[in-house]
Write a structure and sequence with these properties.
With about 70 residues, the protein is mainly α. It is built from 3 helices and no strands.
Length: about 70
């Protein structure tokens, strides 16, 4: 379960100030609901993707016995 700032708060904050976990969570969320997004939703998702790309992508993690290779936002 995601614990953090909600979209209402994040829309008031520049994408450059979002954490990697926030970007990862909302990117996955928008991917799942993409068929139902309005033009505004598509624009917000595009901005999230652009910010992830500007940062060099989501961090690549090496798996070990305590964690996998994906960033967990919960």
């Amino acid at each position: 379960m995601y614990v953090g700032r909600d979209m209402t708060e994040l829309l008031m904050v520049p994408k450059t100030d979002w954490t990697e976990k926030e970007l990862a969570y909302f990117h996955q969320l928008f991917q799942q609901i993409s068929p139902y997004l309005s033009v505004e939703g598509v624009t917000i998702h595009r901005e999230i993707v652009n910010e992830i790309m500007e940062r060099g992508g989501l961090p690549k993690m090496e798996a070990d016995w305590t964690s996998g290779t994906r960033l967990h936002f919960d």
